[in-house]
Structure formats: structure tokens, C-alpha cells
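Request: Not sure, any thoughts?
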Amino acid sequence: MLALARGERLNGSAGINMRCLTLLSALLLVFPVAAQPPRATPGNRLAYLDDLDPYYPHAKFPKLTTPQWVGEPEVEAVVILAIDDMRESKKYEAFLRPILDRLKKIDGRAPVSIMTCKADPKDSRLQTWLKEGLSLEVHTVDHPCPYFKLGFAKAKDTYDRGVDMLHAIPNNKPVAFRMPCCDSINTPSPRYWAEIFNEVTNSSRSGERNYLSLDSSVFTVFTSGDPELPKNLVLEDGRERFKKYLPADRQFVNWIENYPYPYLIGKYCWQFPCMTPSDWQAQHLHKPNNPLTVRDWKAALDSTVIKKGVFNMVFHPHGWIKAEQVIDLIDHAVARHGKKVKFLTFKESHERLQKSLFRGESWRACAESVLLLDVNNDGYLDVVDLRSRAAKTYLWDPDLSLWRVCPGPDGLALKLLLGGSIRFGIVQKNGNASLAFQSATLGMGRAGKVTQDVYHFDGQKWATDKAYHRTFSEADWKKHPAFHRLLDVDGDGICELLDAGGKVYKASPKGWLPLPFTCPLAPGSRFVDLDGDGKLDLVHSSESGWGVHRLIDMNTGWKKIRAGKPSDPGAIPMIRRNGTNNGCFVHSGNLWWANEDTVLLKNHVDRRRFGELLKK
């Protein structure tokens, strides 16, 4: 029975604490699949749950609007003012004081986040700021630009020292990080999110094992391709108003389009995308302190309110923008939108996310068992909470601005603790979510079995589909467990099952039906549509070799186009290296690599065009 919970904020009991990694998650660290949702198609709309990809959202990706998490009925959009590069507080006090005083006139608070490189924990000015409502966040100690120019170990060290330093400030608990130079060059990399941000700091130095929960290093840009936005806000003399700020002279690809909402990268990182332009991007285009910058900021803020998103502003006290220009933007927000807009810090945003979506518990404590996905295919993210035996699914109702509660899927909490794994996909023609749950039954001195069951969401509840029940050997499961997933490989809107041994199954009323071909799985595999025919091709590259395979049809399967060794001339750079992500991602029709090796290349990235990959 679908229950209506007006204004419910998911504040019930915590249920079972899911702090343990599942068996599958642990194996992913050893044998990772390169991360990128294969295609933005209806059948693969849940593929992001199995990947670590910084750039998967797009205009049609399900929203996590501000009313879903902010906790105030009148508020429809959030503004975060986050200033970068602080090394000494005196300069920042002088620049920020007029802005802080203006913010206090709104509700007595001064919500600004300072992205900090260096700070003395004994500096009394920091305590004054904290009492006024500011938050002190992390921007690395050394500000390397590009980030990996000193190598991976030193890149991690400057991050760790920054996190530990900000934790050492009395009364301060940092939650957010911003990558140095993320608005000007291609400095972010999947390696950073996979192996630095999602880890804890190095306890051998400080005795602490600290971590952050929010990142703000990817930019979002509004374009005329979003039908929700009036053309006068996103166009200027018939041309794109905001894309002009992306540094084209630097082949800049650190951006997503028309998605001003928080989203998850991997399991532990909340990405709060920055708004285009930053003040650096603006002065790079049309010189410092230009009134056109403020004009376009106002248009971006108005667009954010329409989208019910977050306007995350990047600015500096380096002469690129004036304090009075920031105040002009604040005045515009108050005069035009009133109580619809709420100014928050990163810390306050983090607290409201946890309270509204995760019952107040730390995100890291429940990331394995609380999942965000669009369950009923209505364009809004929902919450599937598996922390108790009687699980609950919370569906967002955008018309009534409340969460609707429905039961299930039940009975998975303990199995998750015991090493079970879950995969979401689209198996129903109505587009509602389905899940495949695998749990191992260990044999007494003999080979065990792995059981898989499929649950469908029918609009009211989750129900098991007995036709899809299957059992296979533990040995087969151990071959390539990270590849076991649901993917729509042929683009028909329904997912196929790719099992651990490379077998491919098609969904049918009778359950999974085996197809007459196998998937050429290999370390460092990436599923992506290289030729635009709607089907998923396969690229792989690691120390063991590389290859490109094109999906012909559902009778023939994948055909090898190219293959070779890492030492071959023209070899594809490694997608997986030394058992880890090598900084590969998909963006704008290319495979890109950003890591400690590519920093010496032009624009600090390596790339291969899709068309180039298909050439023999």
C-alpha cells in the first residue's frame, strides 16, 4: 500500500548500520571497470550506479532539486558563495567584510565558504568567522596546477595535509574540497575521485584518518538546449551566453550541461557543480571587474531558480571581481526572488542533505545501503533505503513537494552485510527500475553457489520475479565479478545481463535467455557507443593489451576491430594500470586521460576520438 508522508524527511530509525563494504565493492578496488555511463539512453539510465564517473549528468538526467533536501518549504534554490585560495586571513577579511555585512542583513548569518590552502589554527580571526556563519574548506596546501604535476604521491599528500589542517582548527569541521585551477585547465581526474577523495587521510603522519564528503570541482553550464530555460537567459544576440566562458584555447572539458544539482561520484563523493562563469573565466574572456560578468551571473542565478538547483559561485580576492559586484548579485537575488533563494555554506548544505535524505546519519555510514535513483522514471531522484529488513523506498512527488513512502525491497539488508551485491537496471517496458541481487551460499568445504533474484518496481512496491531466479557456481562468479551488471547493449531500452564469465543474457517473460555470443571482457574495459548506432561497443586497455570491439548485432555479438600490446605504436593508453583507474573518462565524443603522465602534454590531457578508435 502506497503511504503518503506529507513533508516526511526520512528521519526514522537508522536500522542496520552498513559500514562494511560488500564483497563486490572490495573486489572492484582490485579489478575495477573503467567508469563512464555507456550512453544517455533510457535503457542505461541507471548505469551510473556501477561506475565512478565525474561527468555523467546531463539535462535529462533525473534531478535532485533543492526542495528535495533543503528542508524549508519556501526555498526553491540555494546559493553557495565559495571563495578560493586563502593563505592568510587578513586579505580575505578585507575583501569579504562588505559581503559578510550584506549577508547578515538577510537573516543575521554570513554564509560564505572559504576554500583554504593555509591557515593557522590559532588565528583568532578564524573563530570570528565561524561564529558569523562561515565555513572553512579545503583547497590543498600547495595549490598544484595542474594537480598531478608533482606525481600521484605528492598530489595525495597535499590533499591529505589540507584536510588534516582544516580539521585541526577548533570548532571547524570541513566537508568540501575544490580542485586547484579547475575553472581554467583540465586538472581534475577520475584518479583523484577514486583514490584520493574517496579515501581517508594518511594516519601515519597525523594519527588522524579524516575525510571529506563534498567536492566542488566540476562546472555546469546553461545552454539553449534546455527547454525549461527562456532563450533570453541563455542566449545573447543569438549565441550561447555561457559557453563562451569555457576556455576554448585550453581544450577545456571539465564541465557538464544544464545540471545545477548535487550528484554522486562513486559512492562517497557529493559533487556540487560550480556555476559558469567563475570570476577567473570571466576575466580571461573580457578583462577583470567587467559589468558583463555580473549581468551573466544574474542570468545564471535566474536560470538556477527556474531549475530549482544550486548556484555555486567561484570567486577570488585577486582583482578579478570587486566585492561590490558580489553584493550586486546578492541584492538581485533578494529583490528578484526573495525567500525562494537561500544562502548556505557547504557545511550547511551537507547537514541538510544528511538530514533530509539519510535520516541524519553520516553518508559514509550508509553509502552501501542507501541508493539514489529514479525508481519510477519520472525525472526525479528517489531514495532506496536497505538499512533494515523491512526496507523502504521514498518517491519524490514534485507536485506536492513531499516524499511518498512505499515498501521494499525487503530482506536484502542482512544479505548485503554478508557479502551480497546489487545491480540496478531497466528490465520492464514501462521504464521502472529493476534490481538483480546476488548472494553467495558458501559450501561446507565444497564449491559454493551464487543465487541471483530479480525484483521489479511496479509503481507501488517491489516484487520478486521468479522467472529470473538463477543459480551459478561460485567459481564463475569469481572470474570477473566487477563486470557482472545490467546494460542495454543493443539500445532497445531493455537491459541485458552480462555475467561474470562474459556470457550475455536477454530479458524475456521466461527470464534470462542466453544469447549466442560472449562479451570480450578484459581488464580496463569501457562500454561506449563509438559509431552512434545506439549499440554499446567495447574498448579495453591495460598492461595485458588493448583492443576495440564493435557490436554488430544480437546474433553476431562483438567483432574485434583493432588490438595490440601497450608497446605498439599508436596503442590506446591504459584505462586500467597497476590495478587502478588510470584517469580515463568519456566527454564530447572522445576518450580522455588525465593523470600524472598527461600533465606534460598540451592542455594536460591525452585523448582518442571515437572515429579514430574504429579505424583499423
